[in-house]
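Readers outside the structure-tokenisation community will struggle with the description of the input data as it stands. What matters is that the chain and its backbone geometry are given together, residue for residue. For illustration, here is how one protein appears when written out as sequence plus structure tokens:

…
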Amino acid sequence: MSLKTVLILLGLALATIFALVCVLLTRERTPRTCQHLPLEQEDVEDGQSLVFADLTPEEMSQVVRYLQGHLGVPLVDASRAKPSDNCIASVDLQVPAKAEVLRFLDAGGARPPREALAVLYFGNQAEPNISEYVVGPLPTPAYHRDVTVQRYGGKVPYHRRPVTGREYMDINALIQMELKKALRFLIACCESDGTDLVILTTAPRGFKSGDRVTWFVLFHNVAGTGYYLSPVGLEVLVDHGDLDISRWQLLQIFYNGRYFASTRDLEQEFVSGALEVVRLKQPQAESVLGSMKPRRLPGSLGPLQFEPQGPRYSIRNNLITFQGWSITFGMNPNTGPRLFDIRYRGERIVYELSLQEALALYGSNCPGGMSTRYLDGSFGIGRFAYELLRGLDCPYTATYVDRHYLAETDTPKTNQNSLCIFEHDSALPLRRHFSDSQSFYYGGLRKNTLVIRTISTLINYDYIWDFMFHSSGAMEVRVHATGYISSSFFHGQGTDYGNRVGPHTLGTMHLHHIHYKVDLDVDGQLNSLETQDMEYEFVKDPWSTQNTIERPYLRRKRLEKEDEAAFPLNVPMPRYLSFVSPNLNKWQHPRSYRIQIISFAGKHLPTNSSMERSVSWGRYQLAVTRRKEEEPTSTSIYNQNDPWTPTVTFADFINNETITNEDLVAWITVGFLHVPHAEDIPNTVTVGNGVGFFLRPYNYFNEDPSVDSSDSVYFSSDQDVGACGANPLACLSSAATCAPHLPPFHFGGFLNL
């Protein structure tokens, strides 16, 4: 073989080796796609959870068609309906009675008929009213029955109905027409002709039952930013109670500390030079107070949470299962997220866990701010839970679920990807110990939690609703507030009611109080309530009797009556309070779940207030009552516009009935006082603005159930800690060398606005 041939072959060999090395290096830099492992099948009856399932769009449409054909009255689409029309306001699931459901779930009984609850506004009647109908059976309705009197003890007066979008549009048109009468003033004060000003409603609407009189606050509107921080000092009081829109009128005008009978009076005061005007410049988008546009270019990407072997939870219809947990989820368009039939290791712990209401109560030296007590359920906590932003509102790889509703229109609407489910690594041990004496070992378990989340945007505020499930058998409920603060025009002694956060902007003080219903069934339906707390006793030391010891001891008490179990807001409560079963664990203690509340609530409305009874649930941080089918909710959407004669009064639920070995419900209030400050601009941050409660096993098990977790880590000093079979953390270097499959980023949250 010639030297030339040898050199050619050697060159080809080197080239081949080089190519192989390049391929291997490329493969090292491009990890394989993560492979999902099959989940262990949870022992859950297939299809039973559908007894709680939200209505489908098809079912909603069937109900609408049925009502249109069987009520015998003309119905106008609510999106176009005037106050003098009849319309379908909303359609939602009629949750079956608990006894029927439990016979079906636990005793092999018949599945309860599937029914809807329809709310109708009858304005085109001799006596206008609000009526509620149960319609069924679905999916093919054949009957309806009026349940208004059964639910509320009588017909619901028409003035209590929530304000519809069409009504707001008509109010805005009236205000715009009236503003034209003060054009010279508007140009001077606001550099505006009024058409670029936006109105913000307040509530409630007046001072007595039957009123429908609302203060509206005017703001500069700049596209792409929150107008809530740009008040112009002008507020108007509108009477919109008449069924004839042409009879609506402006009753009063407020500007910069003064009140006027009409816009003409305001204009005359300005023209005569008797009005002190604060001249505002038209805000510019690039410098407006509260802009959320980024001020820096994107930097390096932050950490990404992903499941290298796929999600460890499963979702089938409305049922989630995760490491022993099973949870049925849904969404009420008014009150928001609701969970049913929460079980751990096959045992029901909670029958119902649902949000009831969110109150925001403001103070100000302007009429709009000082009269505002928003009850967000009347606006639609669930309805306004919009699409979640993948990678920010929830982890990028979370599972996103659509929610459907029918409100103020005859056509069902869908909020896509408006609820998310994910497993969260909190980067904190759930438990751990490092042994440095006698024997040397380490044992621990990561705190991984299943999270169900949705976020409601209620005008200016965004509420983040979390429901979390831990491997210790504990449940955690948490709410964070973010979004824009509401504000008033800064004038006079404004700082008595908040802090100045802009040239003419007062961040107005307010409180957020949130109410939940928790129907616990701890080892069965029949439970009692027990408190435990500490006391000190002074005893002679038993080994010498010459000295005294202050010995803590445990004081236990069974609460017998509802009045004993109503704990006023902001008053110290027993540190341990538990729903207890008559059954005992291995150590002869009652199987129990403890309620632990984390809250910094403001002061409740004084009980001598004319509207306090409408929010009387806020009197109590915790109230435990006997469960009654006729007391399904602590409030009503009709309480907002008639708080002086509330449709539902929670205080009436507490009537000193016995609560020993009964089916009990815990009603929990959490909240915080918010005094806005400079750092609330542009948005309130979630840090420090989260409250909630825990439901924790207390002698329910014989030991911590998380000891059975396959995520547990244990090794001793004489073990090979790098052995993957014994230590799951040692498996990460191989199991996590894969790239998660990330779906393309998409956001359709603006589609249904």
